[in-house]
Specification:
The complex is a heterodimer of chains A (286) and B (779). Chain A has 286 residues and is of the alpha+beta class. Chain A folds into 3 domains: 47 residues, Uridine Diphospho-n-acetylenolpyruvylglucosamine Reductase, domain 2 (2-Layer Sandwich); 112 residues, Uridine Diphospho-n-acetylenolpyruvylglucosamine Reductase, domain 3; 108 residues, Enolase-like, domain 1 (2-Layer Sandwich). In chain A, strands 4-5-8-6-7 form a 5-stranded antiparallel sheet. In chain A, strands 9-10-11-12 form a 4-stranded antiparallel sheet. Chain A has a 3-stranded parallel sheet with strand order 1-3-2, covered by helices on one side. In chain A, helix 10 packs antiparallel against helix 11 and helix 11 packs antiparallel against helix 12. The longest helix of chain A has 23 residues. Chain B is an alpha+beta fold and 779 residues long. Among the domains of chain B are: 156 residues, Aldehyde Oxidoreductase, domain 4 (2-Layer Sandwich), CATH 3.30.365; 185 residues, Aldehyde Oxidoreductase, domain 3 (Alpha-Beta Complex), CATH 3.90.1170; 168 residues, Aldehyde Oxidoreductase, domain 4 (2-Layer Sandwich). Chain B is 25% helix and 24% strand. Chain B has a 7-stranded mixed sheet. In chain B, strand 19 and strand 20 form a beta hairpin. Chain B starts with 16 loop residues before the first helix and ends with a helix. Classes of the chains: A alpha+beta (286), B alpha+beta (779). At the A-B interface, helix 12 of A face helix 18 of B. Chain A: This is FAD-binding PCMH-type domain-containing protein. Chain A: Pfam families: CO_deh_flav_C, FAD_binding_5. Chain A: Keywords: FAD, Flavoprotein, Oxidoreductase. Chain A: InterPro entries: CO_DH_flav_C (IPR005107), CO_DH_flav_C_dom_sf (IPR036683), Diverse_Substr_Oxidored (IPR051312), FAD-bd_PCMH (IPR016166), FAD-bd_PCMH-like_sf (IPR036318), FAD-bd_PCMH_sub1 (IPR016167), FAD-bd_PCMH_sub2 (IPR016169), Mopterin_DH_FAD-bd (IPR002346).
């Protein structure tokens, strides 16, 4: 492994100073479950690492006027076990529970998962689902940007080198029920081959509002607006489920085109959607 | 009378447990010596190529580099059964990854840099990647000199071909058998090469001292075999080679025979008094140690309309890789076991070990049985379905029973397979299956059960021997000196139990030695699930020998005949009057007579064992009245759920029932079975070494080569049948590898019972299952 300088700021201000000084030659370390591997494989060669996991202001989850705010350096384990997350946005808990292994979940962070911009990022479909907005801070100021705009392709984001992802702000529909499911090559320590997240608001037997997000079928997780529009106002019954599954298959086929994985994924999406809807069904009763 | 409690059948705690859980246990990787050097190996980037030129001059000049070697430095061939392998490639490379040059340096980093400075010029040759092509006439020859290679008499290489062994069974005239059959069923099955994936990668330290004596510390299953093979190739007496075996972090067969010790030998010869350490990387572990051989099977079976098997013709073509020194015996083992658990009157088997330009095939837990049963057990289920019979009913009509003959014509006795099947049937809650499955697809999930049987014998030379020495310490505690290796299977615990049982001392008085070929008693190898059986018998004899000596001293002490004494709980006592007793510690080093004089001496017992009456197979027919020491039978039944949309198989429950003769330690037998089920499940669902069209391994990492994790654990129900083995210790049969053998075919059979789809190639990936569902149901 190459030699790099290591900084461990304890405040956001210190971190921003370092990032401003380091420009693009410094890299943020937010758990390191991907970055350390990239360093070893020499895919990246920063001059210094700025470890933000000791900044207490970057940790924690809170609820504010219907919004749920998750600080960037909060670990997957912390998110998956948060009462707020489990009650209000269970799809995100589902997603964080199936990241890697317990060791990786104890180490890896939500912020790292976003910034890494992997097509298969486990938590991102669930973050995108709830209209996730990233709050970016630098010495120059602060800005907010939708996650779907922040993510700009495989491994690419709209974050400037001096900017720090401080938190992500989620806006679930009041009274919604949500679920997430990931299909990997095995049950743990596996990259998502397809993942999906659905949020529904029920009005009696009908779906009043719906959000759907998919992962691992495009360069970044995205909102499947076609599926959302279809669901709005429908009865929540077998017929709707089957039609949704058929639409999801078409959507995945469109997204993947002639990629080698397409023949499998455009069929397997059915099982993923079915599992998500089962979870929602179970949660709805509670 | 003293009421004795037995250690046999008790779940005695693991002898190695406290050391391992506290981190006190030392593995080769933990060992460090002053002036130690580190080795790295330059490996071939071609599957098959001539070496035109090797230039090591730049590497030699790098500061910190102490020695550089190539094939020319040590061109002697070595191997366990067929001497076809050199430590480094000589003149040509035969697989992508073969050692071409080695470096010893003061640090791993410098050794690695030096490796990168070595220039090699190759001339690529056409590669053989499919053994079915490789065995054809005119295929490129991987070992043109095969006819000149030394080998044991029990294997039959075919000169001027890529066939390193051809094992034949000719039991009756198979055509006659087919003529007597009402139906003929044919099938083809395939298993890919897979990896053992031990947690500890192969690690060794080799030193040659100034007198020319080698000391080798190695994570290895075969210290005596390593010494023998190296002594032969170095042409030095065995007194000049000492092999030590610290704890071994998982073997599964990968660490049997000589492995990474070999490339360190030429380096050690150049550098006297320098211990040279080599730790294989995970990538090397995947590709450059042993792998399980791939295998293509073709079966043709003749059956009567009542469902009785009359004839079987089986061809197995093994994808054995570049060097077959060990793999030739896997081919042989599958050949002589090729009836599986069935009584088949007419048989013809051809088992071909074929060189390919791929990683070296070698032993992997099961030694050919997993591969062969993948074919046979699916085939039997397929026949049952075609005949409209329940798969268990069909098996019960055809299994071996006392008096049946197997593939080699051996008349069998003490056969426990029927009991295993019936117990497994009960434990899984089998419901009769007849006719084609009619799954309810709309719910998205389909559940079903399946079953598979297995048989295995210890695959070893007829005269594979064990021995043990029991000696006492001053305080009456005991040193049990053996060269069996503790590879996680619990050998030390089982052998200590046996030793304590026979000696009459508490089990925790027994300290089991780790292998040290200079001092511990001979053991052929820790392989073939043979240690409890073979070393166990040697330990019984050694302990009885020691006990006789204790009794002799007791007889002298009490003035009563030896027959009237016994030993229990650390005392020699008079059976009729247990109050008259003397502590073992007071006589273990000799008796002191009332007049103060000494008598006798330190107690040392010795015991040896060779399975008797094992007769070589006939070369042309494979027939023998008793070709192996004994057989162990078992059954696994599974309950699976298949996701119709994703093709994902979820194994919910596995029932395993084995007839192991006598359960020595129930907890360890159960744990061994659990581990095997997981490994079997892993091979069923995930494992496959993938190669590109040039023979380069594409997935030598845990990211790209998936194995099962704790998240795949099914519910496991394990039970044992105890049909005693005549010459087994307390009746115990060999047991250990057997536990992964039937898992994969049982899952495949359950998949058929769920959805009516049969997948003949491992692994049963979600894609393959999905594709088969789509083809069958159009959804």
């Amino acid at each position: 492994m190459q030699k790099v300088d290591y900084f461990r700021p304890e405040t956001i201000e210190e971190a921003l100073e370092l990032l401003a000084a380091g420009r693009e030659e410094y890299k943020i370390l937010a758990g390191g479950t991907d970055l350390v591997l990239h360093l070893r494989e020499r895919k990246v060669s920063p001059k210094a690492l700025v470890d933000i996991t000791h900044i207490s202001a970057l940790k924690g989850i809170r609820e504010e006027e219907g919004k749920i705010i998750i600080k960037a350096a909060t670990t997957f384990t912390e998110v998956a076990s948060s009462t707020i997350v489990l009650e209000k946005i269970p799809a995100l808990a589902d997603a964080c529970k199936v990241v890697g292994s317990p060791q990786i979940r104890n180490q890896g962070t939500i912020g790292g998962n976003i910034v890494n911009a992997s097509p298969a990022a486990d938590s991102v479909p669930a973050l995108v689902l709830f209209d996730g907005v990233a709050r970016l801070t630098s010495k120059r100021g602060t800005r907010e940007i939708l996650l779907t705009e922040l993510l700009q392709g495989v491994g690419k984001t709209a974050i400037e080198p001096d900017e720090l992802l401080e938190e992500v702000i989620l806006t679930p529909y009041p009274g919604s029920v949500s679920g997430f499911y990931k299909l990997g090559r095995r049950n743990a320590l596996a990259i998502a081959r397809i993942s999906g997240a659905v949020e529904l608001v029920f009005a009696g037997s009908k779906i009043a509002k719906a959000r759907v997000a998919l992962g691992s079928v495009a360069p970044n997780p995205f909102r499947a607006t076609e599926l959302e529009q279809f669901l709005n106002g429908r009865e929540f019954n077998e017929e709707t489920k089957e039609e949704l599954i058929a639409l999801a298959k078409n959507l995945v086929a469109d997204k993947l085109g002639s990629r080698a994985s397409a023949p499998y994924k455009r069929e397997a999406i059915a099982g993923v959607m079915r599992e998500i809807l089962n979870r929602i069904e179970q949660r709805r009763g509670r | 009378m003293i009421k004795k409690e037995s250690y046999i059948g008790k779940s005695v705690k693991r002898k190695d447990g406290p050391e391992k859980v506290t981190g006190s246990a030392k593995y080769v990787g933990d060992l460090k010596f002053g002036s130690m050097l580190y080795a790295k190996i330059l490996r071939s980037k071609y599957a098959h190529a001539k070496i035109i030129r090797i230039d090591t001059s730049k590497a030699e000049k790098l500061p910190g580099v102490k020695a550089v070697v190539t094939g020319k430095d040590f061109p002697q061939r070595m191997g366990l059964y067929l001497l076809d392998r050199t430590p480094y490639a000589v003149d040509k490379v035969r697989y992508y990854g073969e050692p071409v040059a080695g470096v010893a340096a003061v640090s791993e980093e410098i050794a690695q840099k030096a490796i990168e400075l070595i220039e090699v010029e190759y001339e690529e040759l056409p590669a053989v990647l499919d053994p079915r092509e490789g065995m054809k006439e005119g295929a490129p020859l991987i070992h043109p000199d095969l006819k000149n290679y030394e080998h044991v008499p029990a294997i039959y290489p075919k000169p001027d071909t890529n066939i390193s062994n051809h094992f034949k069974i000719r039991k009756g005239n198979v055509e006659e058998g087919f003529a007597k059959s009402d139906y003929i069923f044919e099938g083809e099955y395939y298993v890919p090469q897979i990896q053992h994936t031990p947690i500890e990668t192969h690690t060794a330290i080799v030193m040659c001292d100034s007198t020319g004596k080698f000391t080798i510390w190695s994570s290895n299953q075969s210290p005596n075999a390593v010494r023998k093979i190296l002594s032969h190739s170095l042409k030095i007496p065995m007194t000049k080679i000492r092999v030590l075996g610290p704890y071994c972090g998982g073997g599964f067969g990968a660490k049997a025979g000589v492995n990474i010790e070999a490339p360190l030998i030429p380096l050690a010869l150049k550098l006297r008094n320098k211990p040279i350490k080599y730790v294989t990387t995970r990538e090397e572990e995947f590709r450059d140690t042993f792998v399980r051989q791939g295998m293509y099977a073709k079966i043709k079976t003749g059956v009567t309309k009542e469902g009785r098997i009359v004839a079987q013709e089986l061809e197995m073509v093994w994808d054995a890789g570049a060097y077959n020194e060990y793999g030739v015996n896997i081919t042989r083992a599958a050949g002589y076991s090729s009836a599986g658990v069935y009584d088949i009157p007419y048989m013809k088997t051809d088992s071909y070990c074929v060189y390919t330009n791929k990683p070296n095939g070698g032993p992997l837990r099961g030694f050919g049985m997993s591969e062969m049963h993948w074919a046979i057990e699916q085939h039997m289920d397929m026949i049952a379905h075609k005949l409209g019979m329940d798969p268990i009913e069909f098996r019960l009509k055809n299994i071996q029973r006392d008096g049946s003959t197997n593939a080699t014509g051996q008349v069998l006795k003490d056969v426990g397979i029927e009991k295993c099947i019936l117990r497994a049937k009960e434990l899984i809650g089998w419901e009769e299956i007849k006719g084609e499955p009619k799954p309810e697809l709309s719910s998205g999930k389909v559940r079903a059960k399946g079953l598979a049987c297995m048989i295995k014998a210890p695959a070893m030379p007829n005269n594979a021997a064990s021995s043990a020495i029991v000696k006492f310490n001053d305080d009456g505690t005991v040193a049990l000196l053996i060269t069996a290796q503790e590879i996680g299977q619990g050998a030390f615990t089982a052998l200590a139990q046996i030793c304590a049982e026979e000696l009459g001392v508490p089990e925790d008085w027994i300290k089991v030695s780790q292998p040290d070929t200079d001092y511990t008693a001979y053991e052929w190898q820790t392989v073939a699930s043979r240690i409890t059986y073979s070393a166990g018998n040697a330990v019984i004899r050694a302990a009885r020998d020691a006990k006789r000596q204790l009794l002799e001293m007791g007889a002298k002490h009490f003035g009563v005949p030896l027959e009237e004494l016994d030993v229990y709980d650390g005392y020699v006592y008079v059976v009729a009057d247990p109050a008259r007793k003397i502590a073992v510690k007071d006589i273990a080093l000799g008796l002191t007579l009332p007049d103060g004089s000494g008598w006798g001496g330190p107690v040392i017992g010795k015991g040896v064992f060779i399975p008797e009456g094992v007769v070589s197979f006939d070369k042309e027919t494979g027939q023998s009245p008793k070709g192996v020491s004994h057989w162990t039978y078992g059954v696994q039944a599974v309950d699976i759920e298949v996701d119709v949309d994703t093709g994902k198989i979820d194994v919910k429950k596995v029932v395993a029932v084995y007839d192991i003769g006598k359960v020595i330690n129930p907890d360890l037998a159960k744990a061994q079975t659990e581990g095997g089920i997981i490994q079997g499940l892993s091979t069923a669902l995930f494992e496959e070494m993938k190669f590109d069209e040039k023979g380069k391994l594409l997935n030598p990492s845990f990211v790209d080569y998936k194995i099962a994790t704790a998240a795949e654990l099914p519910e496991m129900i394990i039970d044992f049948i105890e049909t005693p083995l005549e010459d087994g210790p307390y009746g115990a049969r060999g047991f250990g590898e057997h536990v992964m053998v039937p898992t994969a075919p049982a899952i495949a059979n359950a998949l058929y019972n769920a959805l009516g789809i049969r997948i003949n190639t491992l692994p049963l990936t979600a894609e393959k299952v999905r594709k088969a569902i789509k083809e069958k149901y159009g959804i």
